Amino acid sequence: MPCKGDRVTDRSTLDLSSRDPDWWRQAVVYQVYPRSFADADGDGLGDLRGITRRLTHLAALGVDALWMSPFYPSELADGGYDVADPRDVDPRLGTLDDFDALVAEAHRLGLKVIVDIVPNHSSHQHAWFQEALRAGPGSAARDRYVFRDGRGEHGELPPTDWQSVFGGSAWQRVPDGQWYLHLFAPEQPDLNWENQEVRADHRTTLRFWSDRGVDGFRVDVAHALVKDLSEPLRDLGRPELSREEALTALPPGTHPFYDRDDVHEIYRDWRKILDAYQPPRMAVAEAWVPGARRALYARPDELGQAFNFEYLQARWEAGELRQVITDSLATARAAGASATWVLSNHDVIRHASRLMLPPDTDLNAWLLSGGRAPAVDEAAGLRRARAATLLMLALPGSAYLYQGEELGLPEVADLPTEVLQDPIWEQTGHVRKGRDGCRVPLPWTTAGPSYGFGPGGAWLPQPPGFAGYAVEAQDGVEGSTLELYRTALRLRRKLLDGEELTWAANAPDGVLQFDRGEGWRCVTNLTASAVALPAGEVLLSSAPLENGRLGPDTTVWLGR
């Protein structure tokens, strides 16, 4: 049902919601984590009908599209990214008819729909993997995955020193003695993209969802599909290196399983399929690679856009942010794409908490401390998060919002260990706490067993403080974070003009200032003191001005 105060309009005539093939270039996309958005049937797990009932919230917010994380059949070994059938809906979340109803309602409200596609791996429950286990070594069924004999006298050692992103070896042994590759959880065996059946099946999946009205795809782990499987498989030599360190330690395109040059022929093939629809389906790559390499995924004949995580990872420091913004715009321009900006998602600590942590903070240690070492001032964190968001929304390109950030939700860092669901916790032997703190179900009302998330409880416990962040608590309240987002998105749509910005030559130290065309400018104060405002009409401010001056951790939009 609509939330109290939702101001819903049919936006089907608006430019970004029309058949414009470039609607995505400066769109605002809202990420829905289905299991934590809204629960219609009361089982404690979010579902598709819950999302459909709350689409009016997104329309009133003013976003252009929603992106849904996986809703496919899954045992939830990795929050739904272990997909047992990529062309169906998990029965706990609904049916294909429910999905069709969701798309129809989204389109009625003028919202585009983007879905996750997970091509690097499947669930171990996938029919193909179960067939591979039965078929045995050397079979055609096993060739769809990456099976190898082990090393050692009896094959008792993993084939290589490759490590899983979630900790430990990236190889799992099966009863007949062979090992299979899993760059993530053991329940997520990697597919073999040298196999033509694998390629054909993913073409079918792209068409399946496009035919059902999906407007685009977010490609999970886009940089990891192609591996160097030539024999003998080669060790990395330094398995302790992080993903980022390993990529920079080797010549570009030569890592054995990340960001290999051959991956791009796959996306050129996909682009032909996506362009066969009218309007063409968009796609965005999740590719954790350096900027120059990321641009390759965003080329017009490939996916067209790629997530830029540098802004998310940047410190709250003017010089660093300016450099990240400048480099990101240049990278996107070189690819013929538009830039992307994101502050939070389902894999990282929410920015209302993260931005307040000292730059040298061990984030995992902070989570293990329950968010108490160091403690985060929630009010100060929210002020900084609002400033960072208004800065992001002023930048040229697409902004990706994560559910609940429009409410100013902080990270729930103090979840008891006995309720944790993220496989990282178990796979690392209780060393890394994981990502559950940003996945706690949303609060819609100020009371009830799950603050309006559903008629019953929630699959992860919500803290009592969530009541104050609920949609009901903020709707129509002047100065609330929800109303700030609504106003910012409404203004942004009116103000957009081109995909360029011009930095001010005379901005004070610690202040970011740039113009967007002839119509408006953005000023962000990252210092500890109030600063004078340049000339212009105040259109929107992330916090009240201080005697006409721009206070610390505040962003303002000025008309020129």
Main attributes of the structure:
560 residues, alpha/beta
Structure description:
The protein is an alpha/beta fold and 560 residues long. 28% of the residues lie in helices and 11% in strands. It has 17 helices and 15 strands. The protein has helices spanning 48-53, 55-61, 96-108, 127-135, 196-211, 243-249, 263-274, 291-297, 310-313, 318-335, 351-354, 363-368, 378-394, 423-427, 466-469, 471-474, 481-495, and strands spanning 28-32, 65-68, 112-117, 147-148, 171-173, 179-181, 216-219, 282-285, 340-342, 398-402, 502-503, 511-516, 520-525, 537-541, 554-559. The strands form three sheets. A seven-stranded parallel β-sheet has the order 8-7-3-2-1-10-9, with helices on one face. A five-stranded antiparallel β-sheet has the order 11-12-13-15-14. Strands 4-6-5 form a three-stranded antiparallel β-sheet, with no helix packed on it. Helix 3 links the parallel strand 2 (65-68) and strand 3. Helix 8 (291-297) runs parallel beside helix 10 (318-335). It is globular. The chain starts with 27 loop residues before the first strand and ends with a strand. Mean pLDDT is 94; it is low at 1-17.
What is the CA-atom radius of gyration, in angstroms? 23 Å
Derived structural class: alpha/beta
The strand order across the widest sheet is: 8-7-3-2-1-10-9
Low-confidence stretches: 1-17
Share of β-strand residues: 5-15%
The largest pleated sheet is described as: 7 strands, parallel
| Distance from first to last alpha carbon | 41 Å
Relative helix content:
25-40%
Task: Give the helix tally.
Answer: 17
Mean pLDDT: 94
Number of strands: 15
The outline comes out as globular
